[in-house]
Design brief:
The complex is a heterodimer of chains A (333) and B (189). By secondary structure, chain A is mostly helical. Chain A contains 18 helices and no strands. In chain A, helix 14 packs across helix 15 (254-261). Chain A is rod-shaped, with a radius of gyration of 39 Å. Chain B contains nine helices and no strands. Chain B has helices at residues 8-17, 21-43, 46-62, 73-91, 119-123, 125-138, 141-153, 157-164, 168-186. The chains are: A mainly alpha (333), B mainly alpha (189).
Chain lengths: 333, 189
């Protein structure tokens, strides 16, 4: 029904139209032009290897990025410290609270302090430090602070600043000592001990000066920033002691003056210490000029014994340093 | 349904898609006449037919990378031609011919008897051929297209339906109307 042989024969006999040759040539030329363009632009190598090479490059970049991030991650979480290995050793001795164990990986290797890459991230470090909020916002721990607070702080990692104040013997106790501490207390004993010791340290000038001295010896690689801060503290303490000494009567006994010179924040009585040793230990970290100024001040105040002891220590430490005119008479005893 | 997709045209087109320029020459040689006549009969203007013819082949060249064998090559080729033709119709002042909108096309049961009743036309083949071409030109576009696709590419009703984007029944109806009219016009009823 849909075909008619007679019509078909008549139609094919009637129509023999063909496109002109010029049109044929134009179409064939266009085909060659279009077909040859992509073939020349895309080489067989890139067509066959382009995708695999791209995928491999992406994988390599991703893996290297992950490795770099993994290396940098501990630095971002924990501030780089020279005492990190010792800290982790100490922490391994402590009984681990369940929630702390889940948040801080105990077996993680100590972060290596890297100076070369220039990535320091100080603000994030402060933010990520578990004790940052406690140190910045909370008041300094006092003897009357509730035990609850100390326990809550015990859940967290002790602040590096707390550790930095302590002598190496206190900050990095021997494993046996730490084990003894752990067994002596119920929960988080070493941290509680640290808290208590920190409180005591505020009121004990002798311990503080000893700490300064021993830390200066034990950690010579303390950063300049920390040193400057400590110097500022010492200067403030010294200024305080000087003013207190001036307030105190001049004919007062020397031990009393030395006791007054010691900073006593918490009001606890200072341990009796020899003034010469105090004077010597307090000025060890000062620059020589400042030290000499202090010696001259002591001499002017009539604290001759302290001044001489300090001067002797100064000469031991800086034998070739030129002396001011006020102290030249002591140069050749 | 005749789906002989293993015929040579499809293979040639795949080879052309893969960069073999010689395959295109073979394909072009095989189908250039039928496609050109299809365009010529549909447009009625040689210049426009040449332009549309060239456009169809250029579209095929550009789209070769996306070609996959889903039907006969002729169905693919005339589908491109049909689409180009529709674009041409739409760009004209008259717009799309009405015959493409009607499912079965205009009902013209009788072609004027006076046209095909002249016995002198039937006597001369050349005159009959000219008469046939005239009648083809007078067919509605959709019916003419169905007839031309059948004659130039040897398509079945299903393939015509696929190439023109209509249902099989619509294609069959258009083709039936076209043949009936041509028979009537040629005095063969």
């Amino acid at each position: 029904m849909e075909r008619d042989a007679r019509l078909e024969a008549l139609y094919h006999a009637a129509t023999r139209d063909e496109p002109p040759h010029a049109l044929d040539d134009a179409i064939r030329a266009a085909e060659r032009a279009v077909s040859s363009k992509p073939r020349s632009a895309v080489s067989p190598f890139s067509r066959s290897w382009g995708v695999p090479v791209s995928i491999a490059a992406v994988i390599v970049l991703s893996v290297s990025l992950v490795v770099v991030i993994r290396d940098e991650a501990p630095e971002m979480v924990k501030p780089p410290r020279a005492d990190a290995p010792a800290m982790s050793a100490e922490r391994r001795q402590e009984p681990v609270a369940s929630d702390r164990a889940s948040s801080v990986p105990e077996a993680s290797p100590p972060p290596k302090p890297k100076q070369s890459n220039g990535i320091r991230l100080n603000a994030p470090q402060q933010a990520l430090r578990p004790d940052a909020g406690i140190r910045d916002n909370a008041a300094p721990p006092s003897a009357t602070q509730p035990q609850k607070d100390a326990r809550a702080m015990g859940q967290l990692r002790p602040a590096p600043s707390l550790l930095a104040k302590r002598s190496p013997a206190e900050a990095f106790p021997a494993p046996g000592a730490a084990r003894d501490k752990a067994s002596a207390s119920d929960e988080q004993p070493s941290l509680k001990e640290e808290m208590r010791r920190d409180d005591d340290a505020v009121g004990e000038p002798k311990t503080r000066s000893e700490r300064n001295q021993s830390q200066a010896k034990a950690t010579p690689s303390v950063s300049a920033e920390t040193k400057t801060q400590r110097q500022r503290e010492l200067e403030a303490d010294s200024a305080d002691s000087t003013s207190r000494a001036r307030v105190a009567a001049a004919p007062e006994s020397k031990p009393a003056a030395a006791a007054a010179a010691a900073p006593s924040v918490s009001g606890t009585p200072a341990k009796p210490a020899s003034p010469a040793a105090d004077a010597m230990q307090g000025y060890v970290d000062l620059p020589p000029e400042k030290w000499l100024e202090r010696i001259a001040d002591l001499r002017k105040q009539g604290r001759i014994e302290e001044a001489k002891a300090s001067f002797t220590a100064f000469r031991k430490r800086y034998p070739e340093h030129p002396l001011p005119a006020s102290l030249k008479d002591w140069a050749n005893p | 349904m005749r789906e002989d997709i293993t015929s040579g045209d499809e293979v040639l087109m795949e080879r052309f898609r893969d960069g073999e320029s010689g395959a295109f020459d073979v394909l072009y040689g095989r189908h250039k006449g039928g496609l050109f006549r299809y365009m010529l009969r549909q447009c009625g203007n040689r210049g426009v037919a040449e332009e549309l013819f060239q456009d169809v082949w250029m579209n095929l060249i550009r789209a070769r990378a996306a070609y996959t064998v889903q039907a006969k090559f002729t169905t693919y080729l005339y589908r491109l031609a049909h689409n180009r033709l529709i674009d041409h119709y739409r760009s004209q002042a008259g717009g799309m011919p009405a015959s493409f909108d009607a499912a079965d096309g205009p009902v013209l049961d009788n072609i004027e008897a006076g046209r095909n009743s002249d016995p002198a036309i039937g006597a001369d083949n050349r005159q009959q051929a000219a008469r046939l071409l005239q009648l083809i030109g007078e067919l509605p576009e959709a019916q003419r297209e169905a007839f031309l696709l059948q004659q130039e590419s040897d398509m079945s009703v299903e393939e015509i339906a696929k190439a023109t984007g209509v249902s099989r029944e619509t294609a069959k109806s258009r083709l039936r109307y076209a043949i009936n009219k041509l028979r009537l016009g040629m005095g063969a009823v």
